[in-house]
Amino acid sequence: GEDVEQSLFLSVREGDSSVINCTYTDSSSTYLYWYKQEPGAGLQLLTYIFSNMDMKQDQRLTVLLNKKDKHLSLRIADTQTGDSAIYFCAESGYSSASKIIFGSGTRLSIRP
Amino acid sequence: KAGVTQTPRYLIKTRGQQVTLSCSPISGHRSVSWYQQTPGQGLQFLFEYFSETQRNKGNFPGRFSGRQFSNSRSEMNVSTLELGDSALYLCASSSSRTGANTGELFFGEGSRLTVL
């Protein structure tokens, strides 16, 4: 079945780049997403990438997709204290595009 | 535009009881998905409704059920509650018209259920 895995914690210094990694198992994944959850709030879509793309950049965010290795990463440049949150990787497949499977989330903490 | 609204925000039940949670999607959104979030299991997909029909279902027992009304509002019900059902239940809506979408789910703040 589908599975999405991420490391649970990441700590970076303010101003450095953060790289959050994710692996998935469904080779038919069509869309891959990064969602952000701040304390006490619901999830918010940060960015997504279609499976035929290798990279997508949006301001401080860069998404890299290695489809061969089923590896997705999110790079946040110049990490700020406001970036502290839980980041969820997620995927949906062509056959069930409305069923989105989430990873367990990576908690990003920022050191001064 | 109002966001996704979930009620109640917090509730406490005892084992064996049943609970109904409600979700009002963003106006115009016809797809509503439900997720269970726990510290141990993360976010797990429960089901998704579109135009009053269940379109997708996760791997949860039959005690978990849902429905969608003609105004797109959705409810989920959990019967015979167990301690392990304690979780944050998140509802999300999207404007998806077909099975394909870009995955932009708009989440509510959730209903936190505690089972004693």
How would you describe the overall organization of this protein?
Chain A is 0% helix and 58% strand. Chain A is an all-beta fold and 112 residues long. In chain A, strands 2, 4, 5, 9, 10 and 11 form a six-stranded mixed beta sheet that branches. In chain A, a hairpin with a 4-residue loop joins strand 7 (61-66) and strand 8 (71-76). Chain A is globular and about 40 Å long. The model of chain A has no long low-confidence stretch (mean pLDDT 90). Chain B has 116 residues and is an all-beta fold. The interface between A and B is medium-sized, with 26 and 30 residues.
Blueprint (SSEs and pairs):
The complex is a heterodimer of chains A (about 110) and B (about 120).
Chain A: E1 4-6, E2 9-13, E3 18-24, E4 29-37, E5 43-50, E6 55-58, E7 61-66, E8 71-76, E9 85-93, E10 101-102, E11 106-111
Parallel strand pairs in A: 2-11
Antiparallel strand pairs in A: 1-3, 3-8, 4-5, 4-9, 6-7, 7-8, 9-10, 9-11
Chain B: E1 5-7, E2 10-13, E3 19-24, E4 31-38, E5 42-50, E6 53-57, E7 64-68, E8 74-78, E9 87-94, E10 106-107, E11 111-115
Parallel strand pairs in B: 2-11
Antiparallel strand pairs in B: 1-3, 3-8, 4-5, 4-9, 5-6, 7-8, 9-10, 9-11
Supply the key terms.
heterodimer, A: 112 residues, five-stranded antiparallel β-sheet, B: 116 residues, mainly beta, seven-stranded mixed β-sheet, 11 strands
